[in-house]
Design goal:
Blueprint lengths: L27 H100 L4 H80 L7 H23 L2
Length: 243
């Protein structure tokens, strides 16, 4: 058995020879100093674990926001393309409807003028007591012109209704586009709010990856380094893609 005297594990002062085997400190001061050191170490490890958890949650949230932002951008671009096409079609239909309305109005005016002319001719024929055959022919022309006038009026009303429907559809598309743009702005603001946390995590994780070899890190630290490397790869890929 060794005769080497036992010492205090805190200050390395020699313990009394009659001290029991379970004694480790020379006095209450060293015992309290060691206890406070253990408490500080435990508090530090708890804070590090909390920070790791917060960084992990922030990273996961940023990934989700990145995915949602990319999907929202794709939906916005699809909506913009669809709206541009709808706007072109709407303008074409509107021009066509306007031309059709103008043509119908011109036809209506011409029909009215023709009806006035025939009516005047009929009055002249009646006043001059012309042949009854001419009167019957003029009357038939009046009936035909009245039918044409009614047809043109119905067509004008139908075109007016189609024009109103197209205008309402265009207004609805503009409203959907504005809602999608507002949603994209909300996602961009969320991304800016979490950027400081992600940048701090990027710095800490980068320092952790460079501070020691991977084999000397704990399992939790190796998981953080692996997550950081994967996140950097995705970030570089998004930057190259222009997102």
């Amino acid at each position: 058995m060794s005769n080497r005297p036992r010492t205090c594990i805190e200050c390395e002062t020699a313990l009394p020879a009659e001290a029991p085997p379970s004694r480790r400190y020379c006095g209450i001061t060293c015992r309290r100093r060691a206890s406070r050191r253990r408490e500080r170490r435990a508090a530090h490890e708890t804070e590090v674990a909390r920070l790791k958890r917060l960084l992990s949650e922030a990273t996961a949230r940023e990934d989700r926001l990145e995915s949602r932002l990319a999907a929202a951008r794709e939906r916005i671009e699809t909506t913009r393309t669809k709206m541009r096409r709808q706007a072109v079609k709407h303008r074409k239909r509107e021009r066509h409807a306007q031309r059709a309305i103008i043509d119908r109005v011109q036809t209506l005016v011409a029909t009215r003028d023709r009806l006035s002319s025939v009516t005047a001719d009929l009055e002249v024929a009646a006043s001059n007591q012309n042949d009854r055959t001419d009167l019957e022919f003029a009357a038939q022309q009046i009936v035909d012109l009245q039918k044409r006038l009614a047809t043109v009026t119905d067509r004008h009303q139908a075109l007016t209704g189609q024009h109103a429907q197209l205008r309402d559809r265009y207004a609805a598309l503009v409203s959907d586009y504005n809602k999608a743009a507002d949603r994209l702005n909300d996602l961009a603001r969320d991304r800016q709010r979490f950027r400081p946390v992600v940048e701090a995590w990027d710095t800490l994780a980068g320092r952790l990856a460079k501070s020691a070899k991977t084999t000397t890190l704990s399992a939790g630290d190796r998981e953080i380094v692996r997550m950081w490397a994967t996140w950097q790869t995705g970030r570089d890929r998004r930057r190259r893609a222009g997102q």
